[in-house]
Amino acid sequence: MLDIKFSTNENTHRCDAVLEGKWIVFTCPQCQDYRRKMHQETGEMITESTGNPEILHQGLYVQPRLQNFDASLS
Fold first, then answer.
1. What is d(CA 13, CA 2) in angstroms, rounded to the nearest whole number?
2. pLDDT of 13-65, one tens digit each?
3. Are strands 56-61 and 2-5 parallel, antiparallel or unpaired?
4. Residue 14, H or E segment
């Protein structure tokens, strides 16, 4: 699981994250022009569009195979 915070302002938007090849791409459903991506192996970050700089954009990426994982020990 990868949890990224991109700013320090209290006004927060929750970003959607998808995997495109080796890149995790974060987009904001509230800021149509916000797009940032991170290479999952190197950690390289590319900002294609920053949206409103006053907004804290947070994103969480969970690999699809882990989304429905139930770690029941009973």
1. 17
2. 999 999 999 999 999 999 888 999 999 999 999 988 877 778 888 888 888 77
3. antiparallel
4. strand 12-20
3-state helix, strand, coil in the chain (%, to 5): 5, 50, 45
pLDDT for the residue 41: 93
**pTM (predicted TM-score):** 0.70
Query: How far is residue 36 from each of residues 24, 46, 67, 73, measured CA to CA in Å?
Result: 9, 6, 22, 38
Three-state DSSP class for residue 2: strand
Find where tokens 């020990």 sit: 73
Which residues are CB-contacts of 3 (< 8 A; sequence separation ≥ 6)? 58, 59, 60
DSSP character for 64? H
Entry field: residues in the chain: 74
Domain ranges of the chain: 2-62
